[in-house]
Design a protein that fits this description.
255 residues, Immunoglobulin-like, alpha+beta, 5-stranded mixed beta sheet, 7 helices, 4-stranded antiparallel beta sheet, Ferric Hydroxamate Uptake Protein, Chain A, domain 1
């Protein structure tokens, strides 16, 4: 009996071992990032898998590798300074080893780039001053990429993400403008929320909360290139400071 039991145990163990080996194989996603013209590897490119947000930098050969990504559709987002960001759609199955070649095109001379909140952003040269302000980070900024990614269709969805700002169907309120704190800092005038669209200041009354919403609503969120929001006096750049306790600057897309 003991001998038979030992034989049975011996026969089961290899089966368990093979099962473990098979299940640990899993899937993988790897590849290279190269220059679209020279085909030279791009070192230090940021490669991210969405929606998992796993991220790594390419090595000296332009290579990247992600072990065991979840099965299903994914988006590879690849960025590097001096290049136009790329996005590749891939589909991972449970046991595949998927290889992906990503080519990046050099940034055209008419485009510029900055880093906003840790993200590389490419923009037309026309908006250079606005994006430089955004890169300094004094206010709150919503780029066209952010709006597209989060499928934003109304300003309430944007403004309610800003501390100290209330937005609803009745209008928009900046709390610091209502508290009297901003007026104390600018006693010569009664400051108000200023709204600029493509560099032009809209005519609004100090208490016209509906007017703020109406002025902004003349441009749909999907038409935005960039929206700058400065919710208090200390954050407002000098070029927008006149007669203002808070400022919203809207720039519309040119393409």
């Amino acid at each position: 009996m003991r001998y038979g039991g030992a034989v049975a145990l011996f026969m089961i163990l290899p089966s368990i071992s093979r099962g473990q080996s098979s299940s640990s194989k899993g899937s993988s996603l790897h590849g290279r990032v190269v220059d679209s013209l020279t085909r030279a590897p791009i070192v230090g490119a940021s490669v991210e898998i969405a929606p998992t947000n796993q991220r790594q930098l390419t090595d000296s050969g332009g290579r990247f590798a992600f072990a065991s990504p979840a099965p299903g559709p994914h988006a590879l987002r690849v960025r590097h300074l001096g290049y136009v960001p790329a996005r590749e759609s891939v589909f991972v199955t449970g046991s595949d080893s998927l290889e992906q070649l990503v080519t990046l095109s050099r940034l055209p001379a008419e485009l510029r780039e900055v880093v906003i909140s840790g993200q590389q952003v490419v923009f037309p040269r026309f908006f250079e001053d606005a994006y430089k302000r955004a890169a300094r980070g004094a206010g709150v900024y919503f780029t066209r990429e952010y709006i597209d990614e989060w499928n934003i269709n109304d300003y309430k969805s944007l403004l309610e993400r800003i501390p100290g700002v209330s937005a609803n169907d009745r209008g928009v309120t900046f709390n610091r403008c209502q508290s009297g704190l901003e007026a104390a800092q600018n006693p010569r005038a009664r400051p108000k929320v200023q709204v600029y669209i493509d560099g032009h200041r809209m005519a609004l009354d100090a208490d016209d909360f509906r007017g703020i919403h109406a002025a902004m609503s003349s441009v749909k969120p999907r038409q935005l290139q960039l929206m700058e929001v400065y919710p208090n006096v200390s954050s407002i750049p000098a070029e927008f400071l006149e007669d203002a306790c808070a400022v919203v600057v809207i720039w519309t897309r040119k393409n």
